[in-house]
Amino acid sequence: MKLYCLSGHPTLPCNVLKFKSTTIMLDCGLDTTSVLNFLPLPLVHSPRLSKLPGWVSKDGTINLEKELKECAGRVFVDSQPEFCLPERELLDLSNIDVILISNYHCMMALPYITEHTGFTGTVYATEPTLQIGRLLMEEVVNFMERVPKAQSATCWKNKEIQRMLPGPLKDAVDVWTWKRCYSMQEVNSALSKVQLVGYSQKVELFGAVQISPLSSGYSLGSSNWIIQSHHEKVSYVSGSSLLTTHPQPMDQSSLKNSDVLILTGLTQMPTANPDGMLGEFCSNLAMTIRAGGNVLVPCYSSGVIYDLLECLYQFIESANLGTTPFYFISPVANSSLEFSQIFAEWLCHNKQSKVYLPEPPFPHAELIQTNKLKHYPSIHGDFSSEFRQPCVVFTGHPSLRFGDVVHFMELWGKSGLNTIIFTEPDFSYLDALAPYQPLAMKCVYCPIDTRLNFHQVSKLLKEVQPLHVVCPEQYTQPPLTQSHRSDLMLELQPPPMPYRRCSVLNLPFRRRYERVYIMPELANSLVPSEIKPGISVATVSAVVHSKDNKHTLQSVPKPPPVAPSKKRKRVMDEPPVVLAPKPLLSGAVPLEAFLATLQKHGITEVKVEETADGHILHLQAEDTLIQLEEDGTHIVCDNNEPLRTTLRDLVLRFLQKL
Amino acid sequence: MDRECVSLLPRVCEVLAASGSSLPDDTSLEKLLDWFTALTKAEGSLLEACPCLLGFISTVVHNTALDPSILSFTLKLAGLVAVTEDGFKALQECSVLDLVFNLQRWQEAGLWEDPCIRIGWIQGLRAMLQHPKALSFFVQADFIQPLLQLQTDTSLFVASAANQMLAYVLVFCQSVSSVGCNGVDKKEDEDRSSHATTTDLEYPAVPMETNQDYTAVVTAILEYLKKSLVPKENTQLHQSVQILKVLALLLAQTRPPLWDKLLQTVVDSVEELLTADYSQLTLPLMDVILAAYSSCSADHRLPDQRVSRLLSFMLNIKKPADLIQAAAAFLRRGHHDRVHTAQSVRALLLPLDIITGLSLLDTNITDKERFSMVEQLKSKTSCISVICVCLTNTPQISLTAADCLPCPPALTVTAVLSLLRLCGGDSSSSSAGCSQVYTNVIGSGKVQKCALEALAALSGSPGVKVKLPEVFTLLIQYLDNPDSDPTVLHKSYQALVKWMTVCTDLSSITDHQKQDLVKVVRKRACDMRWEVRDSTVEFLGHLAGVNACQTSPGEVTDASEALLGGCCCTTPLFKEALQDPESYVRASAVSALAQTLAQSWQQGAAETQEQTEIVNRLLEILSEDTEGFARRAVVRYFIAWFSSRSSHSSPSPPTSSSLLMQSVRSVLSQGSADLDWEVKVHTLELAELLLDEAFSGHWGYVKGSDPHPVQPHPYAVISDQAYALHTHTGTHKEDVDSDLVGVLNSLVERGVISALLSGLVDCDRPVALKACRLLVTLRQTVCPRSLGALDATAAMATVARVTCELPGRGWALEIRKILAMRSQAKEADEEKSYNRADVVVSDDCGEAGEEAVGAECHTLPVSVCQVLRSLDLDERLDILTQSSDHVHNSPLSLLQDILTASAAHTRPNVQPGQEVIVDCY
């Protein structure tokens, strides 16, 4: 059993598991942090960005004025942003049988895998994962295609040149593999390969293994996966949460008794408690609005935003914010808000029960009804006519490199009254803000990451007791900036197996058993005999048939009637020679009784010698040795077949035959 | 005693003796006993007062089939009767006494199983043991053995009572026998009587043989204590705990020579227990040792050698958790014993030393001690509990003399700060600390709270002021931390205020730090959790009340001004808080505003537009707010404003206080019409201030409704602040006498009189009482009775012409009704004097009055003086002064209840009411 690790990002995993005869890809995360190296894509022409000076090396030898621009002491690539894909050279991706998706954030690389690698398999995901994943992909494609950039920067990727570049660009890895965003057509094609599954539904893969998604409590439709055969069980835990937010709670008990547990997607903010962050979010929001400023919340169009809106729904009253408008701007805003309301069966119990009242499960419906929350596909159109300040705007993309958020950054960045509140933990907020410097706007970082923290995960592992744990290497040591915090790492016994990008792990676990079925008629013919109380044994002669990874024992076919014509007779048709199987012997030879028997048969001169394993009898007159050992008896005599046969028969008298 | 009660008692006794099941409720017997106890105290002999009790006791005792609760009651009652020697004799003569306390009888009847019989037996004996005869009886009946057995009774109540009894018997023996002995000087005798629980009883000389009996008792008890103190096996620890409790009681109460004897008897066993290392016994053992130790120091004796040795032993035990407990217990007693204090302090500082890596202790701590403490701290739960014990005792540490401390107090502050940083997950500052240990406290709210309290307590230690900037920074970090829970934030605020109060010189705080504080306070004022918003607003108020000198030494300002820039920062926050959906926050905002504005009021600063806005909002709260807290706070705000203004400036300068005076009228009218009684009481306090001001200097006026000194409120806790507010200087010497009319007129005009009158007829007793007192004072001032209506001087005659208006609704109707009744009665009186035979004062004059009132719905002007005279204020005051349940709680009512309940019980068709079953034997 092997694990190929195609992504080094612990929360955007992409691993391939070879288990029995199947090749299973676990998640298909796209590392989008690479876009931070690019200039933002403004929706409206930005004089500031267009006037940025090009970059020329200090000695003037390298001139990349067209490709690289300097802003506030950092260099950015002026081209359409590119993403860092999962590794594609480590193994032949066309061999992948299935891809299991755990949540909609972990499927963004799907088109790159399914469309250009010869992939012919199936993708399994839950319905909300598929629908919301589609929305997120659509949104990204839309953001990119709205601001087409003819130019594609490639010179800077030249190894020789990259070495000379400043700052983070110099250290960026695998830049040659970075790719531009896919098209809508590719998205549709990729998603057409998705097969929907429900929680706890069991899917057979070629009869070899069975896969089953379990609720992971992180987002709508998010799942952990169980991959098991009859005797082995592998759990894949990715992006799980034990907090009570909107999704169905995590199913922990089904993870018990795993041989291997692959653990990814722990919280990226182990020291930031989501409740505290939510409080921070609300108080900073209220403080800004009271002072007459606007609040900008760069966020994804699904996920935490539902919880933020729910929290605000309660907070608006207590903070006297009843008249402040809340705007949600995204090409998929409407669908996202509406989808969340219809996936009732994927919600936590509390919200599910609302559906029967009937009431919308999320309170954002009421915010929309009372006109406190308005949503628009983009800043163009209706929004511009209804826009009222001070206000709160939720919009993407959290990287601040594309999407409507770029416009608001340009609009509000100059005033100290306004505040930008980061809630998504995926991007470093300082890097995200880098191309907007100098910035007067206040900036608050309260990342809300509801995924498991180290305390929760160690409790969980204590509960489910897997034999082996595999996890990204980041989880096996304290964070770099807090090297003393030994509580921020996984401490397990036996220690977890760490992996990094391009690792190939031999999972420390051997398959020892295989299930074999026996046909009824064959079973009928068996004659068990009891060798110990409660244990019966029978011999069986049969033919093993293996098909679809299922093994069946069938009766040995009778020799076919002799063919009328003997002319053409292929070797293969010859019936197997069926010999009566020799009986199996069991039992031990009692020394005293055996000697007595020998004496009866006239063998008197016996010298008994004790050995480590039994006895050696020296029949001195016959010059013959009998070795009596625990698991074998040998009769050594030279060219005296009758004697050997006699002795053999004497020995056999003491043994049971089967 | 009430004659009526005495007449009812025989019937009650009959009912009780017949059956106990028909009692009105199961507290009746306890109440009855309480009454008998009070009677005994007041009248001496119970039997003399209620002769029927003797018969009752003897009847009940013979009837073992009765309800055990009645039997238990009878046992206790018998004890009470036997308190006096006469009673004792009477019981003995009719041979009831032997029967009552005959343990074997109860056992044979199978009643001993019932814990209430056992407790009755103990308490009966305990009550009786007040004179040597009783003691003789006790000794001769050989009750000591059963009592010792009861000490480990399965019922906690019984065991505890037996324990107390044991201690009592010993102390009693000591006092009785010492009378018979010579060599007790008078002074010590007095000491003893105040010390021991037996008081005011004179003992006749005791014959020699009785004295021997006592000695036997004492010896028996001492033997028992010695024998049973050390447990034979672990299951007997319970017994040891009980005995240790007795010992602690005894060592605190007895005196030499018994004290010495006691100590001599048990000292070896105690030592044995100490070495045996039973963790469960640490605290009880410490109690015993400390009781012995304290009793030495209370008598100004030198600590006994043996006690000191035990104490040293205790403070050197090996188990760190026990050691910490013992050290904390010692420090809490506050003894001036250098050696042991220093030892305890070191024990308590050791965990802090280990966890923070700061060397708080000298090198005297052995590696072994350190190692075992580290082991203890490695487990999360014990680490947190040990650290919390250490921190909660830091105030004691800060109080100890410098030469007992292993390190300067400033270093302790540093350690607490460092610990607080560790709790927040920031351990870079103390890499020297043990990492296995400090991960245990990361994020622990309990440790944070204890540490913040300790930090606040340490603010007063000498030489810690230099730490102010560091403390300030840390507290701001805590306030800013998103993960701090509301209590932690609250404690941080408290600590900050505490440090600000102590360190008046804030020059060490940088502008940057101040800005941080402003930022964090603004953020917390918008917090999601109302508790946090509440503590923030409260903090701002407190800060405004703290004096600080910022720049030049002479210039004193308040800390809010110095740190936050004063009103321009805080007032907008308060204004928002006044709109808060949570009433507590609104209330806190009102109080905080009062604290913030107090200074400008005192200085008589001119009114601003903002102040007008605030006042309008406050009046809005008073009239519209649905919650009482906010409304109460508003009235208190005006009280504070009024009193701080009048204490500094001359009364009512028209310009500065016109806003105040305008609002006072609305406050009085709205406040007295409020639904909440506390708001009404506060409103009356405001009215009182107005009275005080109006009549200050007037010869007949007694301030603060003094004729009846301030009593605690019958059913409320009134903050000290409310009372503290009207301590006026009273220096004004205006010539008000001649202006009585003007003053009274202005009081009427401002609505003070209406407020008082409406309060008088209020259904809430505290309100009516307060109003009544104020009205009495007013009456004494404006129309003293001594002058009488006929003797009124000319001035008085004009005063009498001052009228107030009684509208035709609400409280005024009530007043009008009273007045109408009065005048009718008066008319009737007058008529009677003419025609005595014909006049019958009709019972329905109330209705007549109502009709009279109902006829005129418009406003009725009445003379203030006339009203004051006609309201029977003195009679009302008498009624109101009695507690509202005085009728319900009287013994008469109790006896009647018992009789009624039994009558109801005997009627077959009446279902007994649902009983509340309370475990109170």
TrEMBL record, chain A:
Keywords: Cytoplasm, Nucleus. It is found in: Cytoplasm; Nucleus. The keyword Nucleus applies. It comes from the Eukaryota. It holds the Pfam family Beta-Casp. GO terms for biological process: negative regulation of transmembrane receptor protein serine/threonine kinase signaling pathway; regulation of cellular response to growth factor stimulus; RNA polymerase II transcription initiation surveillance; snRNA 3'-end processing. GO terms for cellular component: cytosol; INTAC complex; integrator complex. Residues 548-570 are annotated as: Disordered. InterPro entries: Beta_Casp (IPR022712), Integrator_9su (IPR027074), IntS9-like_C (IPR048660), Metallo-B-lactamas (IPR001279), RibonucZ/Hydroxyglut_hydro (IPR036866). Residues 305-433 form the Beta-Casp domain. Gene3D superfamilies: 3.40.50.10890, Ribonuclease Z/Hydroxyacylglutathione hydrolase-like. SUPFAM superfamilies: Metallo-hydrolase/oxidoreductase. Belongs to the metallo-beta-lactamase superfamily. RNA-metabolizing metallo-beta-lactamase-like family. INTS9 subfamily. This is Integrator complex subunit 9. It comes from Stegastes partitus. The lineage of its organism: Eukaryota, Metazoa, Chordata, Craniata, Vertebrata. The gene is ints9.
Automatic annotation (TrEMBL), chain B:
Coiled coil: none annotated. The keyword Transcription does not apply. GO terms for biological process: cell population proliferation; DNA damage response. One of its GO terms (cellular component) is nucleus. Keywords: Cytoplasm. Signal peptide: none annotated. InterPro entries: ARM-like (IPR011989), ARM-type_fold (IPR016024), BRAT1 (IPR038904). It is found in: Cytoplasm. The keyword Cytoplasm applies. Belongs to the BRAT1 family. This is Integrator complex assembly factor BRAT1. The gene is brat1.
